[in-house]
Amino acid sequence: MASKTDNRNYLVSVVTPFHNVDMDMFLRAKESVENQTIGFENIQWIIVLHNCEPQYHTEVPALFEGKENVILSVLDNEAKTPSSPRNHGMTMATAPYIAYLDGDDQFTPDALSVAVREMDETGADVLCFRREYELQREGLSALTETVLWNQTVPKIVVEKGNWDTEKMFNGVFGMVTSKMFRTDFLRENGITFSETIPYAEDIEYTTRVFVAAEKICYLPQHIGYHYFINEDSLVQSGDKDGKTLIAYAKGMAKIFSLYEKYGITSDTVHGLCMQEAFFILRSKSITPEERREIRDILGEYVMNLTPLSPSKILDDESARLMYHIPREVILNPDDPYQGKYVRGMMDGYSVLAGILSRNQNTDIGRHCSFGSIRTLDAYQFRVPLSDEKTIRPLVALQTNVSESNILTAEKPVYYFRKKTGALLPCTTDHLKQYMDALSDTLSRKKSLFIAYSTGERSITNDAVLAADKEYIIIKDFFQDYLPVHPNTKIRLVSKEMVYFQKEKEGIFDALWEDALLDNAFEQIVAFDTKQMLSAFGYLEEHWKDIVSKVKKRDADRGAEVEAAFAEGFDTPIVPRLWPQVSRIVAFGAGELYEMTKALKQYTGEIPHNNGYYYTEEAVIGKAKEDNSDLFLHSADASFFEVIPLGSEDGEAMPFSESDPNTPYQLVVTNEAGLYRYVMDHFIYVKEVGVDGISFTVY
Q: Strands 458-459 and 465-467: what pairing?
């Protein structure tokens, strides 16, 4: 590794702040730097180990033995953001250009060679290229750097006297990782990262760069950075205390005052105020006094917000929310939840609006005037409540006559067959919520996945498979979802063909044989505790036959598990067979509660998670935490209303009006062509909040 006084002539210095980065992710980052077409030997890589746990001080240096162009520096301080390690790394940079790479991201192969070439040719002080992104899991906010520049040309050079503020300062423009900077320009202008801004410090840094730069080069077509969107990032993580949010507000005020100083108009002000409003709404510990302090800090800026015009960066709904939500929340610290737009957001009205828009030209859409509905009141007035009896003849027209465009603009890809025999349409968009839920459950841990289906299957006259939801989910997940989602990090004990046997006994045989051979999986997952209990009952009855098969494949492991079974089932078998299993995941609330209790005879005190609560109609909620009967609903795919149990008029109301500790019947609207469909499922509301409602299954 290079010394801090290394003066060789590198072409670019790459600064990487490293704080307890997942080593698998960092190895991807390392490979991306080493494989740069500019030549690894021409890169000075400065890695700052910032407030790292002890093991990283051994693991990271071990990766770079003999690498003379890599500088490893340790920085321990009270700082919580990348600003401090970036500043520290910048002081050691000796190359003419500086680029930033986060430890869990990657450069594309020619990122640095193209950027250096264009910086040399244009003489720009800063160069901007494009970022692609990868979500750690579905459902995270994709912070894309959509631009307003002409993307049909490969290069745009902007000189200081010819600013185009609308294009330069709007959208997510401030990310420093999609840029390269001239080193002497930064030093001559004293530009470093502010270590007193705890949130959005990139924006302040980039703004100061743009203000000082004589020339900026944009490469609209060059994708140079692979951005990994982590669920633990400041943007993605949820609950924050009032002290933290006050610090965020003070940092935002510094950015806004910078805009005022230089006459910059930017939707970034709306965006940051919107983010602060979301943080306030999600905070469980913030006090009214702290909300008032935030109002005093940001109130002037929020009052001066002007309505935004829709653009390719912001659609109509986003433009409206970014204007109204900060005003409703930040300017009303004593009652931030009661504004019209906040209530609409809590109810998921934007989801409803999207469903109505996409299906306005269906038969039901024209009949109920979906295209003219602009409010929830109008939706409830124009669209009557429906149920299985209402839609059965409409579905029959599709499945028997091969009609189309009755309920959904998109043709169904499957029909979910309910236990009553009724068929419910399932479109691609509708199916996605089930795929994402299963992917979320299985990712990040090696899993024994117990799943089977024994229901009737048929092909309807509109050439669509009809089957029970378990079969459809298994089929689509393995055959369609996983092949096009290679980064899900799903590791299963058994191969997919195990799940497609005709009899569940054959599936159990194969699953348990694979499971007994593998002593290193971390969780056991099933759709529900009924299926899991059935599988464990089969294991208890047939373990001798299964162990004999295991012995033929691995004699030592066979003897080990045989000894565990010989001790009997009076104590839980799972911890004895698989000591690394740390979680059981299977829906087991409501009518399945007794089966969940019975499962403990096999699993003991291993934490139980209820996973996702879903029916043929919708994915309704996700378990809030282990060993809890609470679910959290987030209205990101379906729009729900509720009917109070025992209500005389049977009128449905939005979620935001539901009362805690009250039972309700669910009413759903979604992409499956269900509109105000009264489900035969009941919940017991516990808490209503901006992220959804907490409830138990009634």
A: antiparallel
What pTM was computed for the model? Answer: 0.77
Residues whose CB falls within 8 Å of the CB of residue 350, separated by 6 or more in sequence, listed in order: 317, 321, 344
Q: Is residue 501 part of a domain?
A: yes
Same domain, 589 and 467: yes
Nearest to 49 by CA among 28, 77, 68, 69: 77
β-bridge pairing 43-50 and 12-18: parallel
Give the closest residue to 415 by CA, choosing from 497, 476, 480. Answer: 476
Can you read off the two tokens belonging to residue 279? 């943080």
Contact 532, 597 (CB under 8 A): no
Q: Tokens in use for 346?
A: 């809590």
> What is the distance, to the nearest Å, from the Cα of residue 533 to the centroid of all Cα atoms in its chain?
31
Kindly state whether residues 247 and 186 are assigned to the same domain. Answer: no
Q: What is the number of structural domains in the chain?
A: 3
| DSSP per-residue letters across 421-439 | S-EEEE-HHHHHHHHHHHH
Give the integer Cα–Cα distance in Å for 118 and 479.
44
**Of the residues 308, 336, 364, which one is the last residue of a structural domain?**
336
In angstroms, the Cα distances linking 603 to 229, 249, 540, 609 are 35, 47, 13, 12
C-beta of residue 240 within 8 angstroms of C-beta of residue 176: no
Contact present, 411 and 671 (Cβ < 8 Å): no
- Give yes or no: residues 62 and 187 share one domain: yes
Tell me if residue 218 falls in helix, strand or coil: strand
For residue 558, tell me if it sits in a domain: yes
Confidence of residue 422 (pLDDT cuts 50, 70, 90): very high
Q: What angle do CA 89, 94, 95 make, to 5 degrees?
A: 110
- What residue numbers bound the domain in which 220 lies? 12-229
Residue 697: inside a domain, yes or no?
A: no
Asked if residue 466 belongs to a domain, the reply is yes
Q: Are residues 181 and 292 in the same domain?
A: no
pLDDT digits (tens, 9 = 90+) for 327-343: 999 999 999 988 888 98
pLDDT above 50 (res 283): yes
